[in-house]
Design goal:
It is a single chain. By secondary structure, this protein is an alpha+beta fold. It contains 14 helices and 18 strands. A hairpin with a 2-residue loop joins strand 12 and strand 13.
Length: about 350
């Protein structure tokens, strides 16, 4: 058995709207790159994938298209998704590998059966011999080293690029969950709209993302950071620059952050009281790139009265969780039950 394991590398994948992460047992995270593919128009020949392709977004000539093949956490372009997975897997698979890898892929809880099949089909076409999917809330809980098989409730708030997943896990399954299409990308769009409305200045999503990362906060601060931002004046059509500070970003993010708070409250309202008591004691686990915005923990605590429990690396939680399931693949169908969905089907 050891000989055959050396011929292939089983992998866990967090297939995200903004970034794709791949985990290999014993090696950790081996791929963390943007989910972007640049292709030739017409031929669809792949020109670049990942970080190199992201640099081409909104800057390509007419014969090249930079594509994000996933939208709101699900596959929007199956052919390009397959090419992207195949490229990332080829970077990490041993050249002498004779056995195709098994894959565990994190998916949003709102995914339909058609979208679920699209994920699996893309993985099979990319070279997998076996594919299992796991809900992102559950994968993130496993990656955060939560004892999910115990009879205790834990809440996960995973703010990714395209979706925010809020879930309650207990006894090895997802008891309640909510998936919304408000996450990191919505934060960027809110910043673009705010600067356009306040300063009559048009900036790009990439500039908005950089502002969010460098001076962003979801909570107004007394000591703020300032940054000059350049864009196109909507009055004259000419280049212009304005100063933006941390509290401007906090004001811009009020609407999407409120939407996320509503989802957290909605899941708590649907959760059995015994599990809510556990969550109140254990805290809310926040992960995903969007959770790194300062001040989110204060806002959630102010809304719910529940503390935020930190994790070591919120960005890699889901990928680590998917990877850890590799040793339990035979029991996944039996043990990884979405109890909320099962109740709805009755």
């Amino acid at each position: 058995m050891g000989f055959f394991k050396s011929l292939s590398a089983d992998i866990g994948i967090d297939l995200g709207t903004c970034n794709t992460l791949i985990y290999i047992h014993g090696k950790g995270i081996v791929v963390n790159e943007p989910s972007v593919v640049a292709v030739e128009r017409g031929t669809k020949r792949v020109v670049a994938v990942g970080a190199e392709a992201k640099r081409m977004l909104w800057k390509t000539p007419g014969n090249i298209i930079a594509i994000r093949p996933l939208k709101d956490g699900v596959i929007a372009d199956m052919d390009t998704t397959e090419k992207m997975i195949r490229y990332f897997v080829s970077k990490i698979m041993p050249r002498h590998g004779l056995i195709k890898p098994r894959m565990v892929i994190g998916i949003p809880s709102c995914i339909t059966d058609v979208e679920n099949r699209a994920v699996k089909e893309s993985a099979f076409k990319a070279g997998a011999r076996e594919v299992q999917v796991i809900e992102e809330s559950l994968a993130a809980a496993i990656g955060a080293q939560i004892p999910i098989h115990e009879p205790a409730g834990h809440m996960i708030c995973d703010i990714g690029g395209g979706t925010t997943e809020v879930g309650v896990v207990s006894l090895g399954g997802v008891v309640e969950s909510e998936s919304i299409k408000t996450a990191g990308n919505a934060f960027d769009e809110a910043i673009v709209k705010y600067i356009r409305r306040k300063h009559n200045l048009l900036i790009g999503l990439r500039t908005a993302e950089e502002l969010k990362i460098r001076i962003g906060s979801a909570y107004p601060l007394q000591e703020v950071s300032n940054e000059e931002v350049k864009g196109r004046c909507l009055m004259t059509g000419l280049p212009r620059s304005v100063n933006v500070d941390t509290n401007d970003i906090a004001e811009a993010l009020m609407e999407p952050v409120s939407t996320i708070l509503d989802s957290v409250q909605m899941v708590l309202e649907r959760t059995p009281p015994e599990l809510v008591a556990d969550i109140s004691q254990n805290g809310i686990i926040m992960c995903g790139g969007g959770s790194l915005i300062p001040g989110l923990d204060k806002i959630i605590f102010a809304k719910t009265g529940i503390k935020i429990s930190p994790v070591d690396d919120p960005i890699t939680c889901t990928a680590y969780g998917a990877g850890k399931m590799l040793s339990n693949l035979n029991n996944m169908e039996e043990g990884m039950i979405n109890l909320a969905r099962k109740r709805q089907m009755k």
